[in-house]
Structure formats: C-alpha cells, structure tokens
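User: I'm putting together a teaching handout on how sequence relates to shape, and I'd like one worked example. Could you take TNase-like domain-containing protein from Leptolyngbya boryana NIES-2135, show the sequence you're using, and then write out its predicted structure as tokens right after it?

Assistant: Happy to. First the sequence, then the structure tokens directly below it.
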Amino acid sequence: MKHPIIAAAFFMLLCPIAQAADLKGTASVIDGDTLEIHDQRIRLHGIDAPEGRQTCTLKGKAWRCGQAATLALQEKIGNQTVTCSGKKRDRHQRLVAICTIGREDLNGWLVANGWALAYRHYSKQYVPQENQARQARLGIWSSTFTPPWEWRQANR
C-alpha cells in the first residue's frame, strides 16, 4: 500500500489486539480489582485483590477483607474521573488496564495500601509496593490471609 495512513488503518482492522484502549469517565467499583466505565468491565493489570466473599483472620477473628478492599477502592475513587489504558482483554473479555486518577496509578495505590497483592504471574510491576505494604502491615497485611488466586481455586 502506498499511503501510510491507509496501511496503518488496514493493520489495525486486521490486528485489533495491537490497539490500545483508553476508557475515561465515572467508574463503578465491581470489586477490589475490577471497575466498570461506560458499560465496559476493566480488570486492573498486575494486581489481585481479595474476592468479595473472602475473609482474612485478625487476632483470631474473621473479617471481610475482600469487602474492605472493594470499599477502600470506592472511597479512593469517589466521583473522580478515572482513566484506564490497556491493550489486552482477559478470558472474561474485560479490558486489562492500568487505571489512574490524575497521575495517580490506582493499581499501585491498592497494592501500596495493602488492599491487593502484586499478581506476579502476570507482572512484577507492583512488587515494590507490595513489599512496602507488607513491612508496614497495611490492609490485609495486618492479618493472615490466603492469596486471592489460591482462595479462588479452593472456593470454585
């Protein structure tokens, strides 16, 4: 093809996975690592938060750490505009993305505050934030818990 713009458009039609998707707007929090903007589900890249029904144990008592992670994310976002950028979709057709409020990375914020773990199977991007949260005993790190990926496997 002689025209680079036509060639680029043709490539994007044939290879939609190569396209980045950006969503911006008011976000609804589905759970500690999933949002929805404009009827599009978004799975937060590189992190895994406790499931909504998941409990952790603090001083011998169960507490709803999955629900707490969801509420922490809801409180952080409030009515602010969220921007999510990603390139891939997961097996549930959710956009896998890094989401921000202004310049603040929400994925990193969740891990840094102990409401999610770095999901090393997919990315090591948030390991430093996880290490800091663990040392400071923030969020779920103040208790004992099963990593969300193990909890899901045991509770299918």
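A couple of points you could highlight for students: The chain is about 30% helix and 30% strand. The chain has one domain: 20-146.
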